[in-house]
Design brief:
The protein has 192 residues and is of the alpha/beta class. The protein contains 6 helices and 6 strands; from the N terminus they run E-E-H-E-H-E-H-E-H-H-E-H. Helix 3 links the parallel strand 4 and strand 5.
């Protein structure tokens, strides 16, 4: 029986096809941001996942799910929060790649981990990396994403650009427009 708290779906994604989700923080929200639009409410930003599932638990749940769901387009690493906070990310990606078959591997990330070389190295093992960047204006970025560690958006953008040059897979940058926050012309110009 599949551990439904770790593996969920499949979900039909417009962008990525039939997606089987892997939640790296199934027990609680674990994110270093507290975005105004996030559906996961009621938790303060953190810098690490408390009591994360082991690689063995994740791989066991994924193996069971793949027995049932064989026509998957993508295996999506996500979390109730930020998946790059998972402490064994590189090892996990290696193990998932051993199981994936024809499916691609994807991570849905707020992008903050791109400033850490170890995380960048781990992400190199994926087929698709999707980062969020809600604003390139520091004051707006701070209002929308409310991150824990005082991230400078200019440093984040530079790190994302560096990663883009090094990454061999598909990089997707998602910008969520929030009315009253980042919906003005100067916000779009800053993202250019």
């Amino acid at each position: 029986m599949q551990d439904s708290t770790i593996v969920f779906g499949p979900i039909n994604s417009r962008r990525f096809g039939m997606s089987l989700g892997v939640d790296l923080s199934p027990k609680q929200k674990s994110c270093n941001f507290d975005c105004v639009y996030c559906e996961l409410k009621g938790a303060k930003p953190v810098e690490e996942i408390e009591n994360p599932p082991s690689i063995d638990e994740i791989i066991s749940a994924l193996k069971e799910a793949l027995k049932v769901h064989q026509n998957i387009d993508v295996i999506t690493l996500t979390a109730n929060g930020e998946p790059t906070l998972y402490p064994h990310l590189k090892e996990l990606i290696t193990k998932v790649n051993e199981l994936k078959g024809r499916a691609k591997t994807l991570i849905l990330s707020n992008g903050s981990g791109v400033r850490d070389q170890k995380i960048c190295e781990a992400l190199q093992g994926l087929d698709i990396v999707k980062f969020s960047l809600d604003s390139a204006v520091q004051s707006t970025f701070k209002k929308i994403d409310r991150n824990k560690s005082g991230i400078e958006v200019s440093e984040l953008v530079k790190a994302m650009a560096k990663f883009r040059k090094e990454f061999k897979g598909e990089l997707v940058l998602e910008i969520l427009v929030v009315a009253g926050f980042n919906d003005k012309e100067e916000e779009f110009i800053a993202l250019n």
